[in-house]
Write a structure and sequence with these properties.
Layout (H helix, E strand, L loop, with lengths): L5 H4 L4 H8 L8 H4 L2 E4 L3 E6 L26 E6 L1 E10 H9 L6 H25 L10 E2 L14 H16 L5 E4 L1 H9 L1 H6 L8 H8 L3 E4 L3 E3 L6 E3 L5 E4 L23 E6 L4 E2 L3 E3 L4 E14 L11 E4 L5
Parallel strand pairs: 1-11, 5-15, 6-7
Antiparallel strand pairs: 2-3, 4-14, 6-10, 8-9, 10-15, 11-14, 12-14, 13-14
Helix pairs in contact: 2-5
Length: 325
């Protein structure tokens, strides 16, 4: 009686899966805005932030009186994960040439990383589409820096604008936003802003860290990634002439792997719900007919804007739809 080897029956390749999960995308902001959290099921309901935490209770107690008790309650919303899959392949000839030439390139590793890059690029665009939709926000959490307030104008006071945006968020969720994403245009305009230049000491290079200190934020990041426009064939900014201010307690995962400690029941702006154990990479297989090595990477996830405001729209973030004239 013959038995199949473990490699023959294995559905997931641990080496390639580790390569896929270990991929890092330093330029992306999707995981900064919406850190990954693990989910045990593909669909269900999760807790969302509510206003009950701000209830003003009279908790004074007279001797012998009953202790007041609070019934824990919460609001839920449904979620459903979506599967994304991408396949990679390397011809036998290309793999052999890469192995034996002067560079000695491991095309197997390169192909997995390239597939992971494409998965993250797709996710960057999807997250941007969700968070840049003005209709998703509370009315007080959307604005534009136009006219004399545009950040590239000498009369613009970015600190005053951001302070006002902070208050708009605080009035919705009870805490100040602590992080910000800038489009390339917003970042360059802020660096050259007259008031910011006057505030900074001579010789100081104004970067994301300095801007975070000036604006009283924990962290500022620039959304520098580009996306290929399939119609024009040109590279375009994923985040264009905009700025996003938001509250997030979690640090960025900067990759595909979920962060176990993330808490998706607080007022955090957004999270990427990711199925436990994904992404996964299938075992490499060889197509005898075409003489190519092949493999697949799969991930199941969805972005959820969970920091809701007074009317059920997003209240834990403020979207500047325009910042440069």
């Amino acid at each position: 009686m013959s038995f199949q080897s473990i490699d023959a029956v294995r559905l997931v390749d641990p080496v390639l899966t580790q390569l896929a999960q270990g991929y890092r995308n330093a330029e992306g902001v999707a995981s900064f805005i919406a850190p990954a959290v693990p989910m045990t099921s593909r669909a269900g309901r999760t807790m969302v932030f509510g206003k009950d935490a701000f209830a003003n209770l009279d908790l004074y107690r007279a001797p012998g009186a009953l202790i007041q008790r609070v019934t824990t309650s919460y609001t839920t919303r449904s979620f459903a994960l979506r599967q994304e899959a991408i396949g990679w392949e390397v011809t036998e000839e290309a793999a052999l040439e890469a192995r034996t030439n002067a560079g000695q390139i491991d095309l197997r590793r390169f192909a997995v990383n390239d597939a992971a890059l494409k998965l993250m690029q797709s996710w960057e665009v999807q997250v941007a589409k969700e968070v840049l939709n003005p209709a998703a926000y509370e009315a007080s959490c959307v604005g534009a820096a136009a006219g004399a307030d545009a950040w590239d104008k000498p009369t613009s006071d970015t600190e005053m604008q951001i302070d006002a945006a902070k208050e708009a968020v605080r009035e919705q969720i009870g805490v100040y936003p602590n992080k910000m994403v800038l489009s390339p245009q917003a970042y360059n305009a802020a660096r050259r802003n007259k008031r910011i230049r006057e505030y900074a000491q001579r010789g100081v290079i104004i970067n994301e860290k300095v801007l975070a200190e000036i604006w009283g934020l924990d962290e500022v990041r620039v959304a520098a990634r580009l996306s290929l426009n399939p119609v024009t064939g040109k590279l375009e900014n994923i985040y264009n002439n905009c700025a996003l201010l938001f509250y997030q307690t979690e640090t960025s995962t900067d990759g595909l792997t979920p962060r176990e400690s993330a808490n998706y029941a607080n007022a955090g702006f957004a999270y990427t719900y990711t199925l436990n154990g994904t992404p996964i990479s299938t075992p490499e297989r060889f197509d005898m007919e075409r003489r190519v090595f092949r493999g697949d990477i799969l991930v199941e996830r969805n972005v959820e804007l969970v920091g809701l405001g007074e009317t059920g729209q997003v209240g834990s973030g403020y979207l500047f739809t325009t910042v440069v004239a």
